[in-house]
Amino acid sequence: MNLIKSFFNKINIKTDSVYNPFLKLFSGTFLAQIIPILITPILTRIYTPSEFGIYSFFMGIIMVLSNITNLRLEIPIIIPKTKIKSNDYFKLSFYINILFSVVSLITIFLFGDLIIKLLDVDINFYYLLLVPFLTFIIGVNKSLYYFVNKLGKYNKLSLSPIVRSSITNISNLIFSFSTYGLLIAQFFGRIATLIFLIFNEKINFTFNSKTLRKDLKLNRTYVTTDTPAALISSLNSNGISVFATPIFGTLIGGYFALVNKFIGTPINLISKSFLDVFKKEAAHEYQIKGHSKVTFTKVFKGMIVLTIIPFIFFFLYSEEIFVLFFGDKWLQAGYFAKILTPMIFLKMLSRPVSFMFYIVNKQHINLIGQLINFLFLLISVAVGLSLNSPLYFVYTLSLLFSLFYAAYIFLSHKYAFNL
Fold first, then answer.
1. Residue 266 above 80 pLDDT?
2. d(Cα 329, Cα 310) in Å, to the nearest integer?
3. Is 394 a member of any domain?
4. Number of structural domains, the chain?
5. pTM
6. For residues 399 and 341, what is the distance between their CA atoms, to the nearest angstrom?
């Protein structure tokens, strides 16, 4: 952790004011991400690419739904000055989550067989029921995370991802006899996280319709504006998992799942860590100077210095790396990873600095950008589908998304420098 602080100091990013909570949250996230990376070579020799594909498809849908199951009403939990009001907002998000999940469950009971037929995915109807249950659990965990964050219990927050990752990966091994073992493991991991977060917390669940209606009206912007944006953003993030399996089959879906797991996990960790620092420093600099030139330059250069050599090495030897770590049957996944490397690199660079959209109140530009990004995803799917080739899907996706993230970096630079 001292190495991380030293690195930020070298690039002139002051972290003293947020150093302790930042490092606590970072350390928990870091350890939680390391565990699945270490155990993945074992899982790829236990589960087949097709089983990874089924898991990826399910989790893609679940992550999209869980991003909107609270109608984004978990966000205002952290805002009020008093714990009582934060508890009221927690109850609001909780009951909205219940309503959303019940509707999802009824939909699956009524149309589950039709959904399976339309998707053309070989899955058991009863495992489809895991979708609303996992969506509900993840939604509650999000609300709990904001509530515990409001209470300033950073030690608990830092341990929660470790609990989830540990229980999930132990369950991955225990349920390896099942085709759906990876998905079942997610269920137990998320349940364990929920129990850990809610343990010893005094939360009032009393239903008061008058208070709930009042709070919903007060926070309706999250429902009407932020929820659609979150839905589009989530579709962009999980679109490959959602579209690849039903269109190209579970085998190809499994390849994409491993690429995302192996590359996406450390990249998300790096970009999120820089984002945590960039948010505070860039906003502070903009308030004082009317621009964020220094912070943008230091963070952007810092990311490039930290990652450029590993990315070049991975681009040159991705196929060999995948075969070495995961086995011969994952060679094709390594080739897909090579094609997607430029896109992933630009995505990592754009994620922290694109917070400039919020600093300069350009959220509407971000919403338009997310719509364009989703359009690029649909174009990539259409190209792959029309040519019946997952390879052309990957090439098109990498090209269009690279252009998108490059444009975001350009606009973020423009806003940071107040051009």
1. no
2. 24
3. yes
4. 1
5. 0.79
6. 11
